[in-house]
Amino acid sequence: MKKTYSVSGMTCSACSLHVEKAAKSVEGVRSASVNLLENRLVVESDDISDDQIRQAVRSAGYDLVMGEPPREGSLLRPMQIRLILSFAFLIPLMYLSMGHMWGFPLLQWTHDPANAGIFALSQLVLTIPIVIANNKYYTSGIPALFRRAPNMDSLVAIGSLAALTYGVYAIYAIFSALSIGDMTAAGMWSMDLYFESAAMILSLVTIGKYLEARSKGKTTEAVRKLIDLAPKTATVLRSGVEVVIPAEQVAVGDVIVVRPGAGIPVDGTITEGSAPIDLSALTGESIPVVKNPGDSVSAGTISLGSFTFRAEKVGEDTTLAAIVELVQNANASKAPIGKLADKVSGIFVPLVMSIAVLSGAVWMLLGEPFTFALSIAISVLVISCPCALGLATPVAIMVATGKAASLGILIKSAESLETAGRADTILLDKTGTVTIGKPEVTEVITLSGTREDLLAVAASVESASEHPLSKAVITYAEENGITFVKAQDFSAVPGRGVSASISGKICYAGNAAFMEENGIPLTPASVNGTPLYFASGNELLGIISVADKIRPTSKAAVAGLQALGLDVVLLTGDTHTVADSVARQLSIKNVIAEVMPAEKEGQVRTLQEAGHHVIMVGDGINDSPSLARADVGIAIGAGSDIALESADFVLMKSDPWDIVSAIRLSRATLRNIKQNLFWAFIYNTIGIPLAAGVFFVPFGWKLSPGFAALAMSLSSVCVVLNALRLRFFTSALPTTSKEETMKKVLTIDGMMCEHCKMTVEKVLSRIPGVVSARVDIKAKTATVELSGNVSDEEFTRVISESGYTILSIN
């Protein structure tokens, strides 16, 4: 059982480690993972009550909140108030404490030792509101010390409290000196109050946390947008009357009415009407898809027309809910590269506190005054930044998974995202992966009689067959308006063909061997695809070629994978002849054919045993064993339940180019994490010795506590901003792949509606050599991209057979 909780009070990676440790200490908890960016705790356990988890987390000093965590705006508003209040008092405090050094006006009285007491008390009065406004550092950091679980707040609290305590001690020393008339001592103490250091530490750290919170808010935008996709209400038919109810109250079986521009609240199947559906927010596909009765629709998509549909999946069972859960789980998971940072963060705060005490003690032993040693110790405490280390990995993972989701690429875990970037071999399934997965008629060759006669006989013979090739022939005949009759005395010979009685005459359909077995003479013919021979009696009527078309972006995808240095292998259960043909078209050198689904898993294992890091790409159904065996499994297909379970990546658009995008994004994320970790380590490696005064003797370099606080604040902000660069990742096809295609614009008469548009795009896309076809109804044009030569006569024939007329071809 997996449960997600919101946790309040966490400020850095040390906090997340303490919360994880506390949750894991509960008996029955198998795993616990914290997402620091979203303040989420994901617990996988047996039947454990929420109170048990809450009690464990509270014992670590944090609080468990049921339900969704507060939105970014509600978290930022209190910080804004703290900032305004802090700087309202910090500015006059800095003017009072430091202004006389710069000759600022109205501060002459501060030079008089007789006013030292008033000068010191004035600074204390201005500091107290800042301390009160930022008391969170004390209420969080000090108790953490007593629990032996110090965090970043502990460092800030100790540093500012040390400066504040020394300032209060200095006030007593000033009044003591004034009481005995020692003006020199009173003046000296008034110059070393450190109230401004305490106030600056609190104020500047709060600025950093505010900027960090705003930046982190941008990393979670993708998840929030996904959650907000589903509309809050639904219009349901109840006893023939339309009733608007909250979307969460929709039940399975309800009939829902959708208007143009409305969001679809749940998953279901259209019962009446048709409309183009905007899937862009869910899959990244920019072109609306027309849905008709019997087609499925998903929550979170937008209807551009009117229809009714029956609810089939509601609440947490919808595709959108599954996607949101996948993205959130990926964000909560930890990448292997981040484990080093976690280990360092676990000992970081105690180590820094030890360095601070040791640095102060060493400088005092070297003869420096206490104020110098105190300044050194405070600087070490506040410049150290466990946040930068803790954020280096998760913030990059969150931005990357969010960006991937916006592109229609679902990533299951941080580990798979990292592993994909290290892969060296990729296995591509053929059917449904590099090909569309649906056989289509590519060519009709008439040898006797008319083309219509051939199609009528072919469709009639195949009408009783369930074979995919038979369905392709029947669909083609229906789209071309061919009337056919139901076959009688149907008989099928597996692996050969079928026979049936049509109008009292025996007709045959099958391969060359089947024709020869029935004594039908063959006419040699070269076709693009699998040839199906059709005969009436002993007369050969013609040949219909059927092929599983290669997806438009498959060739560019293979070239892109090869450019990334991956060894591309075509893995298929199809024959060597078909596999080699597809491989030649895609420029794939390595082919493994005639492999059963169960044997594909063995091929993956063999490559892994040879030392390769393997990615397997399949349709997520019959390829599930090999997807699970591979280092990274990528399911290409519209997010089926099986795909979501078996694969590490799911490509919602069924676009092979997204394979390239997923691997490029993985590598970009890995680079970003390494950059973040490098700069976080370098910052602390240089910053702590600098604050400790290591460079004071040779170079005279010494950090003030205020500057150290500013540096600490900006370090974590820089890590977050670097990770945010992943938001600009693009997945566009390279220019070279577009230049390889030719383009023609067809002006077509007779197109009137969306149905016409779909029909023309479909028939044009079926022509061998056509990569894509896009119709503009208003302009009455079809823009066709070609990977080979297609004659104008072929375009004219196909369009006229569909009931339209070509006016011009440019």
TrEMBL record:
It is a multi-pass membrane protein. It is found in: Endomembrane system. Keywords: ATP-binding, Copper, Copper transport, Ion transport, Magnesium, Membrane, Metal-binding, Nucleotide-binding, Repeat, Translocase, Transmembrane, Transmembrane helix, Transport. Pfam families: E1-E2_ATPase, HMA, Hydrolase. GO terms for molecular function: ATP binding; ATP hydrolysis activity; copper ion binding; P-type divalent copper transporter activity. It comes from the Archaea. PROSITE patterns: ATPASE_E1_E2, HMA_2. Its main location: membrane. Residues 1-65, 742-807 form the HMA domain. GO terms for cellular component: endomembrane system; membrane. SUPFAM superfamilies: Calcium ATPase, transduction domain A (SSF81653), Calcium ATPase, transmembrane domain M (SSF81665), HAD-like (SSF56784), HMA, heavy metal-associated domain (SSF55008). One of its GO terms (biological process) is copper ion homeostasis. The chain crosses the membrane at residues 81-102, 114-134, 155-181, 193-211, 344-366, 372-400, 677-701, 707-724. Belongs to the cation transport ATPase (P-type) (TC 3.A.3) family. Type IB subfamily. PANTHER family: ATP7, ISOFORM B, P-TYPE CU(+) TRANSPORTER. This is Copper-binding protein. It comes from Methanocorpusculum parvum. The lineage of its organism: Archaea, Methanobacteriati, Methanobacteriota, Stenosarchaea group, Methanomicrobia.
